[in-house]
C-alpha cells in the first residue's frame, strides 16, 4: 500500500444545515491532518484517517461560530478534535466508491456511510528557492455523507412559530482531500516543510 499524506492547505470539511426552515447555513473546517493508504490494484483495501481541529470552525459569522464552539454544539473545550477512520467498501464506477467512516464528534463515535469520488492525479514540481527538487504526485478525493446530529449529542434546538425549528436535524457533509505521496515528500525534502507547517498550525 502506498501512503498519501493530506495536504492541509487544500483539504477541508464542510457541513451545511437548514436554518429557520428556509435556507442553508454552511460551516468549514480547514485544519485537517491525516493520511490515506491506497493501492489501485487493491483499491477496496484502501483506508484513511484524519483529525480535525474543531476549535477553528468558521461560518463567516463570529457570534454563530462562538455558539457552535459552545457546549450547545461541538463543546470544543471538552472535545477540541473531531476524528475519522474510514475505508472503501464497494467500487461503483471507474472513479466512484462506497465507503464508511467511524466518525467521532463530542467523544461519540458512529459509523457513517460515504459516497466517494476520485478526482484525479497530477505531478507537480517542488521548488526550494530557484531549485526544482523534483516532482510530487498529488491525488484528490471528495466524500459526501448525511448524518443526524443528535446521534453525536449535538442536540441544541429552538422552536419557531408554526412547528418549525431553527436548525435541521440532518446535516450534509463534504470532505475534500488533496494528498501527496509520502515517498515523493521524502525524496524531494518537502516532508520537512509539511512537518514544520503541521507543527505551526
- Provide a count of the helices: 3
What value does the average pLDDT take? Answer: 90
- Radius of gyration, rounded? 19 Å
Biggest beta-sheet profile: 8 strands, antiparallel, barrel
Shape: globular
SSE run: EEEEEHEEEEEEEHH
Beta content: over 45%
Beta strand count: 12
Helix fraction bin: 10-25%
Strand order of the largest sheet: 1-4-5-6-7-8-9-12
Low-confidence stretches: none
Our measurement of the CA-to-CA distance between the termini, rounded to an integer number of angstroms, reads 28 Å
- What is the structural class? mainly beta
Walk me through what this model shows:
By secondary structure, this protein is mainly beta. It is 13% helix and 55% strand. The protein is built from three helices and twelve strands. It has helices at 62-69, 182-188, 190-200; strands at residues 2-6, 12-19, 23-29, 32-38, 47-53, 81-91, 96-105, 108-128, 131-148, 159-160, 164-165, 170-181. Strands 1-4-5-6-7-8-9-12 form an eight-stranded antiparallel barrel. A two-stranded antiparallel ribbon has the order 10-11. A hairpin with a 3-residue loop joins strand 10 (159-160) and strand 11 (164-165). It is globular and about 60 Å long. The model has no long low-confidence stretch (mean pLDDT 90).
Brief descriptors of the model:
201 residues, mainly beta, 13% helix, eight-stranded antiparallel beta barrel, single chain, two-stranded antiparallel ribbon
Give a quick summary of the entry.
13% of the residues lie in helices and 55% in strands. It has 201 residues and is mainly β.
Topology of this protein?
Elements: E1 2-6, E2 12-19, E3 23-29, E4 32-38, E5 47-53, H1 62-69, E6 81-91, E7 96-105, E8 108-128, E9 131-148, E10 159-160, E11 164-165, E12 170-181, H2 182-188, H3 190-200
Antiparallel strand pairs: 1-4, 1-12, 2-3, 2-12, 4-5, 5-6, 6-7, 7-8, 8-9, 9-12, 10-11
Amino acid at each position: 500500500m502506498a501512503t498519501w499524506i493530506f495536504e492541509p492547505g487544500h483539504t477541508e470539511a464542510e457541513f451545511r444545515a437548514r436554518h429557520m426552515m428556509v435556507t442553508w447555513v454552511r460551516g468549514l473546517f480547514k485544519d485537517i491532518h491525516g493520511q490515506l493508504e491506497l493501492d489501485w490494484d487493491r483499491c477496496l483495501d484502501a483506508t484513511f484517517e484524519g483529525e480535525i481541529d474543531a476549535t477553528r470552525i468558521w461560518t463567516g459569522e463570529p457570534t454563530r461560530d462562538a455558539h457552535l464552539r459552545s457546549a450547545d454544539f461541538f463543546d470544543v473545550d471538552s472535545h477540541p478534535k473531531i476524528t475519522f477512520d474510514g475505508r472503501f467498501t464497494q467500487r461503483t464506477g471507474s472513479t466512484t466508491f462506497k465507503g464508511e467512516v467511524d466518525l467521532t464528534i463530542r467523544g461519540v463515535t458512529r459509523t457513517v456511510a460515504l459516497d466517494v469520488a476520485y478526482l484525479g492525479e497530477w505531478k507537480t514540481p517542488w521548488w526550494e528557492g530557484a531549485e526544482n527538487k523534483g516532482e510530487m504526485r498529488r491525488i484528490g478525493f471528495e466524500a459526501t455523507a448525511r448524518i443526524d446530529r443528535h446521534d453525536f449529542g449535538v442536540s441544541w434546538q429552538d422552536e419557531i412559530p408554526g412547528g418549525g425549528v431553527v436548525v435541521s436535524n440532518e446535516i450534509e457533509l463534504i470532505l475534500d482531500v488533496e494528498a501527496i505521496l509520502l515517498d515523493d515528500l521524502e525524496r524531494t525534502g518537502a516532508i520537512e516543510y509539511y512537518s514544520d507547517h503541521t507543527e505551526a498550525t
